[in-house]
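Students often ask why inverse folding is considered easier than folding. One informal answer: many sequences map to the same fold, so there is more than one right answer. In these notes we will look at a single instance of the problem. The structure comes first.
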């Protein structure tokens, strides 16, 4: 005789799952399988059917800007949830909710990227033209980015409103958003609004604050602490230790992003770098300034933050003379080793395996 309770629809019946390892590729497929439902939730909601032009447009905005990336943040939410949740709560229903929470982080990311590409005068994102450059959209993309942001709160409300963690999830999203915007502000102030940047401000201290705020919180801390909250974790010390490690990973992640802006292959990054022409306070220029001779510094001052291709090439040439690629390789190796050690040192039942896998996936070594 079957032990299944009577009158239960087996499609939604919540049974604990075998927490067997699912590869990232499989998890990415599982996430994609949820996406059509999310798009439908956000664009065919009954209460907006009096503005069909908007919901039609929003569907286009979301489809172009949300699902096409690596989904690193969503994957992190799901993998963290699987690692943190007590086994008896790892049900198909809860996993689906973790995937929806993952899509909320991807909506936040899409909101940031649409805005960031306008602000950075970028041309390509995820191997396609930036949204603001499509069909004359231009600065109206600002409104699209804000709509994408609000979609995440619509989703949260629909699926988490009755959960104990609902308010905490909202507060986490709001707090990470504000931090990211402050980091972006520091990033944009450094460029001196298209005038020559003042390279005296490009110190390692400033760089460290900038990447902590503009990248590390929303890319690493947020996905993991959202998953911890949904998994019912309350111990503040667990959050504190997780945050320390995740901020370090976020730093390495942005240093890699800065390196790839100059040295990455467009086919694999899907974007064309603009850091030198925009005069960004990137890791490369910050380290170059620390090591430059007075002559090299003078040349950097003259050429950095200019869109003239000759000046951009001169900066790249100076990076080569200063040996920045080698400095990066050493930094990357040392930071990886240090992070591995720090992960071994965390306690309070934090899952080492999850942090090691996250490090190797999100900050995998270049070359
Ligand atoms: C990465 O900077 C940081 C962000 C994308 C956050 C943007 C925040 C906003 C509030 C708009 P980046 O410009 O180096 O990223 P990329 O190299 O992907 O353009
Ligand atoms: Mg950018
Ligand atoms: Mg930027
Ligand atoms: Mg970048």
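Output (designed amino acids):
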């Amino acid at each position: 005789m079957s032990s299944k309770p009577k009158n239960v629809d087996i499609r939604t019946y919540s049974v604990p799952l075998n927490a067997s390892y699912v590869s990232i590729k499989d998890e990415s497929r599982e996430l994609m399988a949820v996406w059509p439902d999310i798009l439908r939730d956000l664009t065919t909601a009954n209460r907006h059917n009096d503005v069909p032009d908007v919901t039609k447009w929003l569907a286009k905005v979301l489809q172009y800007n949300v699902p096409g990336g690596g989904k690193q943040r969503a994957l992190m939410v799901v993998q963290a949830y699987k690692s943190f949740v007590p086994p008896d709560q790892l049900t198909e229903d809860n996993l689906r909710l973790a995937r929806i929470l993952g899509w909320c982080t991807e909506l936040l990311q899409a909101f940031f990227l649409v805005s960031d590409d306008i602000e950075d005068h970028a041309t390509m994102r995820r191997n396609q033209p930036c949204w603001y450059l499509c069909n004359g959209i231009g600065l109206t993309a600002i409104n699209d980015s804000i709509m994408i942001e609000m979609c995440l709160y619509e989703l949260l409300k629909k699926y988490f409103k009755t959960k104990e963690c609902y308010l905490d999830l909202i507060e986490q999203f709001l707090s990470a958003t504000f931090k990211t915007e402050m980091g972006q502000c520091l990033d944009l102030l450094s460029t001196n609004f298209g005038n020559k940047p003042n390279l005296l401000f490009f110190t390692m201290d400033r760089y460290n604050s900038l990447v902590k705020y503009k990248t590390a919180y929303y890319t690493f801390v947020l996905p993991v602490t959202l998953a911890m909250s949904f998994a019912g974790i309350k111990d503040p010390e667990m959050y504190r230790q997780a945050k320390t490690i995740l901020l370090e990973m976020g730093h390495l992640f942005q240093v890699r992003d800065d390196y790839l802006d100059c040295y990455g292959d467009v086919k694999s990054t899907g974007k064309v770098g603009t850091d030198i022409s925009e005069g960004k306070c990137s890791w490369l220029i910050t380290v170059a300034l620390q090591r430059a001779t007075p002559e090299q510094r003078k040349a950097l001052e003259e050429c950095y933050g200019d869109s003239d291709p000759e000046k951009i090439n001169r900066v790249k040439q100076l990076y080569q003379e200063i040996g920045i690629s080698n400095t990066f390789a050493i930094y990357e190796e040392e930071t990886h080793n240090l992070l591995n050690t720090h992960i071994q040192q965390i306690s309070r039942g934090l899952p080492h395996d999850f942090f090691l896998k996250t490090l190797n996936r999100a900050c995998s070594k270049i070359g």
